[in-house]
Amino acid sequence: MATPQEIRETKSESQTRLIKKYPNRRLYDTKTSSYITLADVKQMVHRQEDFQVIDAKSGDDLTRAILLQIILEEESTGGLPMFSSDLLSQLIRFYGNAMQGMMGTYLEKNIRAFQDIQKTLQEQSTRMYGGDSSRGTQDLWAQFMNMQGPAVQTLMQAYMEQSQKMFAQFQDQMQNQARNVFTGFTFPGFPAGQPNKNDPEKP
Q: DSSP string spanning 10-71?
């Protein structure tokens, strides 16, 4: 008899749509037992379907590679690009940087916040304009963007000032820790335990 954990894992696997990529670059959808295209995968993304793309031979997970390929095609189809050359250059500079992992998390959280706002505006547009809410959503977005400009500028200024203060405090803490660690160590040319002339508490 299957354990509850095994039942949950089986259920989770059954909910994930499995797509196999063959050496001839064709994508095979195991759910429909048919070959599909990148356009079909793109539609799955829009429908928020849970899917995974694997290499049919090695079993390696290729989901990220396929999603990146879709983004590349979207950016090069002649429409309005989402990523400017300057933005792409800045993103590339983060690779190999100590902040690489944090930047990915930061972008993901901001995109989710953007999606939450979009969902709320769509719901409000549906209540205000009925079934055809696409035009209403655009109007609400325009109003929101016009309103948020000064507010975001103020928030960003406060955020930068707070960040600078916190960084200065962090530097002070690091310097104090370094002094405590090396207290009592003797270095060539520097006598140990030399009193600080500026410290009134020391003789």
A: HHHHHHSEEEEE-TTS-EEETTTTEEE-HHHHHHHHHTT--EEEEETTT--B-HHHHHHHHH
Phi/psi of residue 21, nearest 5 degrees: -105, 125
Query: What are the φ and ψ backbone dihedral angles of 47, each rounded to 5 degrees?
Result: -85, 0
Per-residue pLDDT reduced to its tens digit, 4-47: 444 444 444 458 999 999 998 899 999 999 999 999 999 999 99
Q: Are 18 and 52 in contact (CB under 8 A)?
A: yes
* Cα–Cα distance for residue pair 116/118, rounded to 1 Å: 5
Output 191 or 38, whichever has higher pLDDT: 38
In contact, 140 and 125? CB cutoff 8 Å: yes
Question: Contact, 44 vs 51, CB < 8 A?
Answer: yes
- The pTM of the full predicted model, rounded to 2 decimals, is 0.55
Estimate to the nearest angstrom the gap between the alpha carbon of 29 and the chain centroid: 28
